[in-house]
Task: structure prediction
Amino acid sequence: MILKTILFILFLSPPRVFSPDGTGKKLTIVLDIPDAIRPQITTLNLVRECSDGKIDTLDILPFLKAYTDNSLSHKKDYRYKILAYSNGNLIFESEWSEYTRPTAKWFDKDKLPLFIAMMLFTIIMIYYIAQARANKPLYLRPIAGLEAVNEAIGRATEMGRPIIYINGLTGISDIATIAALNILSHVTKRAGQFETRIVVPCYDPVVYTIAREIVKEAYTTIGRPDLFNPDDVYFATDSQFGYAAHVAARMVREQSATNFFMGYYFAESLILSETGASTGAIQVAGTDSVAQLPFFVVTCDYTLIGEELYAASAYLSREPLLTGTIKAQDLAKLLLVAVIVLLSILSLFKVNITLGLF
Amino acid sequence: MSVRDFFIRLSKIDRKYIYLVILIGLIIPLIFPPHFPQKMSPQVKRVFEYIDTLPKGSYVILSADYDPSVAPEVHPMYKAVVKHCILRGVIPIGMTLGVQGAGLALDAFTEAEKVLGARRDTDYVFLGYQAGGAVVILGLGEDIKSVYKTDYFGTKTTDIYALKPVKNYRDIALVISFSGSAIPATWAVYAYTKYGVKVAAAVTGVSAGDFYPYIQAGQFIGMLAGMKAAAEYEDAVNRILKEKGIGKFSTSAIRMMDANSIGQLLIILFIIIGNIGYFLSRRRK
Amino acid sequence: MHISTNLWIWIQALLTLAIFTFLYKDNPLFRMAEHLFVGLATGYGLVVVYKNAFYPNVWVPLFQEKQFIFIIPFVLGLLYLTSAFPKISYMIRWPMAVLLGIGSGLSIPLTIQTYIIEQSKSSILRPPYSNLISWINALILFVGVVSVLVYFYFSIPHDRPGVKQISKVGLFLLMLGFGASFGYTVMARFSLLVGRLDFLLNKWLGIRPF
Amino acid sequence: MRPLLEKKIPLALVFIIGIIMTLQYFVPHPISQTIYDNSLMWDRAIASMAYIMAIVSFLRFHSRRLKDKNYAPYSLVAILSFAAMVLIGFIGGTGSDSLFQKMYDNMMVPLQATTFSLLAFYMSSAAYRAFRIRGIEATVLMITAFIIIFGTTTIGNYVPKMNEIVEWIMAVPNLASKRGIMIGVGLGVVATSIKIILGIERNWVGG
Result:
């Protein structure tokens, strides 16, 4: 028995080790074990020796053909050898590999096309912003939902009842929330001119602090800092349905004349908008949440769909710098359509090219 | 009041009456179940018939990748599929990629022991939870017993009688991933695309919409979607129980789905009534 | 009928009923439940934020591990408190600026990749398709995506010939998609309601189905 | 001095941090990874401290209402339940057998689930009111919803090809519309992010 095991120990060439990416943390070890031996292996160990002398033994799954060692340092070298056991007996041992260092790179070549696309879009944007600075007037097609914003504010003024404004249920890292906060600024300025009250219950603590700042600033800009009431921009709660229950109840109790739902929403969207519809409020929604759009479209008077939410700030302010970027978005859309159509036509003629990202 | 006026008034009815109708419409079938005759939808049928026609002694992996929050929809499916396998002599291998799935899956196997007298490690195997997600899925394609060194109860997998002939996906007839999230897609990509094992999904109604493109692409052999599929599967298993004279039917999903269907049909009725009223009032003008 | 004798089940049942009363109208019972809900949830949120966010990301690195670089986020966080002092309340913009910078910076490459590139890429026609139906489906996806994009075109009048028709197709598809999502969600939402009613009838009142 | 502190420093911070965070995506070097990990920690750290402001706001909102006869008892409930949850959580711990967890399971979960389930009612009334044959778009929306609602009932299975129609609508035209929306949203998100980093969109510092 002992003799048999000893005979089975094979000394083979060292494992191949290479650096799989530029993170400087990983090394991939190729486990070239003869197929004849594979099925007998019950335990497979990889011994790692670091250039600082530290030796570790890694227990890995016996069938692996390659193993990627994580969390290494790009300032040290490593070498490996393979040990394979069958029921506790060593049956295979390789020589040490060469010392290898995980390479740390400053640019990921695989992401180059993405980088070019990003730069292209940025340049287009800067170009159109410069054009806007030169005061070239831009045509913008009317968006019903945005023309309705002023009408909706006017209604609240006429009826002498408040506006409720919701910034969505995501945090500040979600760009939809930022778009919502920009619209809040316009709505507050406009409502402030007519001394119409605007109530902003908040869901996210950070969004609350920013919303408060924005409303305060908006009132200051129109010269009415006295209109700011800290109790009207407040943190309600950060539980999804607790918030929905609170806002729905508030709509019913205040009989708000106008409700705005901007930003990103989840399942609570319909609780908010259907309650609002039941009080007879005029409602304007704007979201990029694909799953919740249908409910707003059905229950609100006007809905900004997806990209329209992001265009809203530019539309409402009519500031040339902001409208300039809309032109950039349009050009990007045109380019995308061109790429989709062109590559489709080419592949109809059996020409399959891959255009970097596509 | 003419019929026309009736419909016009009905189309402007206060929403409270709608809520009342819905409430009554759901409570009554929950107390007095109507037992709508079930007819299997094609996706469910594909999964059911596939298992139904497997030779005795085949292996099926049932991965309980769900948690209690989606249990009302998904758990009845898991229980029904476990029973179906055991009734047909197919050996289910239970496992989970999420910690919370272990307790739920165990519940299904315990029920199968009680109702069908299934024996652990002979008629079924329960491996339990293994951390790693996609890595586990890939590992099973190479060697199940080295990914799971022991089963849920601590028995060495190499000692489990039922697992003797099983090495990896080549010995598995089907994998079903039960989930309320995107995990079935991970199974499709790693287990089906890489190893060619047949995969099916059992998911909640809400998430089902995301999986239709996978079905169109043939990456799942079928899909159990939402309460409706749970009811259909439960009913089909009940029929086998009846054939074999075992009895002990379970009806939790069927009962809930009957109420569900009535609610949905009420909405349809509302839409029709609303449109009749709207149409009539427009004509008057 | 076997009415539950478990106190927690009773509490659950009463809270469930209190919320349902809002469907009839706003009333004291609902107000009570709503304020209880908001209070509990905010308290829960504070405990969770402290244990899962403040403790591991501020307390441990700064006060236990003495990584003094974490003074910066700590001080930035403290600047939120300046909003109580009108004279320096503008300093609240500094932590806001850091969060906005992190949020928008992270989103740019990720959004280009997952929203723009991936979605456009999968809309390109890539024959051969195995049968007529897959051909038609691919064509619908192709035409659909292009027409919806035209619908979102802001800087040309939509009454121009060509543009008008294509954007109409886009709008038509949007509505179709909305109808589909709405309809598909109905089943799932009814499941939730049936679940609640089943809890009341079965677990609380102990009514077994006949 | 004030414009510097009020506007220029915040705008400079957004600009610098925004560009660093964008570029780190393209840099695999460990330094980039460290920046990424740390920024996420900082983000959570700063956001967690905003919670103090949120709690102050919450308590002020409800304590002011204690003087209002209509709201006093309810706002008192809100304050007391808040205090109870906080005390129980910090004193009794948050383990799986704790009172904190029991309160969550037996009070918050049913409140959440019930509020969520109100959606079934709201869907019914919304469908009743809005699904009318009114212009081509509304009609398309209504008919699609109608088919899908019917197709997902038990009875829908008895109509030939119903399930295939539902699947097809979900997988083809529905997917096309979603993709179109997502591409547009993507452009909007990127454009807005760039505008914020470049300081063109500056409502948050007062325009």
